[in-house]
TrEMBL record:
Gene: Tmem60
Protein name: TMM60 protein
Source organism superkingdom: Eukaryota
Alphabetic keyword roster: Membrane, Transmembrane, Transmembrane helix
Residue spans crossing the bilayer: 36-58, 78-100, 106-129
InterPro entries named in the record: TM_Fragile-X-F-assoc
Length: 134
């Protein structure tokens, strides 16, 4: 299944809107829901992205795949997978902290997010300064 850019944008907006509505209801104390329930749109969206990414990565294993320029593409996909897992770790740690399941310091909760942001900055710098221009 290949989604067009318009479908991906619409899906992103839909899940973001659902998450923000649920977040506002929780912060206004209109909904006494668990924080893990508030993040359900985020979990669903991330699951869809992870499945699509894993399917693309598994597509390299099929017979007849042309491996030219594949190593760079695979490195990028591995970075995307790591980034998704860091985001998932941050969201899980944040929900656990907000729900008071853990007494971990808030600074430790943000470590996966900081690692994700630093990795994003490194990738941006690499793409700006070191990508060969033909």
């Amino acid at each position: 299944m290949r989604m067009s850019l318009a479908q991906r944008v619409l899906l992103t907006w839909l899940f973001t809107l659902l998450f923000l509505i649920m977040l506002v209801l929780k912060l206004d104390e209109k909904a006494p829901w668990n924080w893990f329930l508030i993040f359900i749109p985020v979990w669903i969206f991330d699951t869809i992205l992870l499945v699509m990414l894993i399917v693309k990565m598994a597509g390299r294993c099929k017979s007849g795949f042309d491996p030219r320029n594949g190593s760079q593409n695979m490195k990028k996909k591995v970075w995307y997978l790591i980034a998704m897992l860091l985001k998932l770790a941050f969201c899980l740690a944040l929900c656990a902290k907000l729900q008071r399941f853990t007494t971990i310091k808030l600074a430790y909760v943000f470590i996966p997010l900081w690692a994700l942001l630093i990795g994003g900055m490194v990738e941006l710098g690499y793409n700006i300064f070191y990508v060969r221009r033909d």
